[in-house]
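Lecture notes, unit on protein representations.

Consider one protein chain, 305 amino acids long.
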Amino acid sequence: MFASLRNYLLPSSLVLVLSLLSAGCNTVQTTMPPAQLHTIGFMTDFDVRDDAIGICKAVMDGVAPGVRVIDITHQVTPYDIAEGARFLAGSAPYFQKDAIFVVVVDPTVGSTRKAIIAKSKTGQFFVLPDNGLLTLIQDRDGIESAREITNTQWMIGAKLSSTFHGRDIFSPAGAHLARGDDWTEAGPELDVSKLVRLDIHSATLNDKGLQGEAIGTDGPFGNLVLNIPADAFAKLGYKVGDTVPVTLNGHKYEFPFVKTFSDVPVGKPLFYIDSRGRLSLGINQRNFAQTYKITPPAELFIPKK
């Protein structure tokens, strides 16, 4: 009845204009896309046996509802900043260029160490303690700028614990970035050249051969991760199929250099180039570190062919 009365009282042209405007407003309201959320890569040494990871993710979702969080790992060896730095540098290239990383390997939590946000020259953001976790990212990608997180609005609240900054500072700050907040509001700018760095050793090549180091193991399999890039090893002159002499932890061995594990019998050792482009030592379907009683770091030397 009211529609008929409106049509009777108003000119038909005005009724048409009002109808189009009403339809246009409804279209804008129903088709406007939600704000774009940036993906968060999340890595800690917390493990998953208690509620810490779930709490951190709940905090992120509370600040940026619906945010996508990809777990890199939560089984970094406890307190092992160098391992965390290696995992971070290894995974970052597979994330989007605008991804956010929340990384908590923080043995000095609650001390004077800074909680920071750093932006790499590739455009990714890293929310973490300033304790050397950024070293390999800085070396490969470069750090454009960094800020200390001091703004309590970017934290879970004014009452911070002294032992759970993963919940109280890093998770909410990462979520603020994920929803597109201006990161300059997080706190004062830092001198990038003064960020804490790890003393990470590189393999060295001389006339006699290559001096390197086993820097870790490859997950539960016990393969030795070496700090020897494939191109550095190639300069020694060995080819696939050669037997390579090596001095490892003071003991001399000879291992075949092959493409993959199945190129040697089960239980036999091998040199190979791993999926990250590094020389590695393993045993087909066995644990090299346990078998040879190697606990990284461990020195090794490979002579020129």
